[in-house]
Amino acid sequence: xxxxxxxxxxxxxxxxxxxxxxxxxxxxxxxxxxxxxxxxxxxxxxxxxxxxxxxxxxxxxxxxxxxxxxxxxxxxxxxxxxxxxxxxxxxxxxxxxxxxxxxxxxxxxxxxxxxxxxxxxxxxxxx
Length: 127
Hints:
Blueprint: H1 3-17, H2 32-48, H3 55-70, H4 80-93, H5 101-126
């Protein structure tokens, strides 16, 4: 349950810990590199697990939720709040039923996106 969020948290902290021209924190597009790292992490999570056969469908679910989390954030400043709340709600209910692979992928992607937002906020306040 915590792996997508932890990987997203680490990728959200990277722009503040590593000085690189690709990981800049000066613009509103500074989320692109952490989200790209979170997308690769979601790809690894989806394809390295053995529980579901529809791994591509699971990755498409995680990719769609990452895009759902990123694109409105470029317009609406506080879009991370609904993303985190939706992920918490999904985390409560995802274990009670047998959801299809796409829905599990949505949960993985929302967890990674929530981790990116929480990691960015944490690293901004600590550094």
